[in-house]
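It is worth pausing here to work through a concrete case rather than discussing structure prediction in the abstract. The textbook approach is simple: state the sequence, then state the predicted structure, then interpret. We follow exactly that order.
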Amino acid sequence: MEDTITIDLIMLNAIKQCQNLLAEWIVPDSKTNDADCLNKLLGILDDKSLVIYIKTIEASINKTDMEKAIIDIERAEKEQRSK
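Step two, the predicted structure:
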């Protein structure tokens, strides 16, 4: 349970850092240029614990589940476009 809380906090922190960075970058008079923003995003998302967790999730999802998920996403996107 403690490991789950820790990884949840790591993921939440990474998401919040990315959101804050993008919110700063998108401001018209921001001093953050595109290259700096991208490098900072990559630095946040390349956290070793986060990468390991993502790979663990990917490995736990079997091919059939992935195929079903892709079909569901495509169906939802098609329905969204038809509205």
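Step three, interpretation. The mean pLDDT is 86. Residues 21 and 27 are 10 Å apart (CA to CA).
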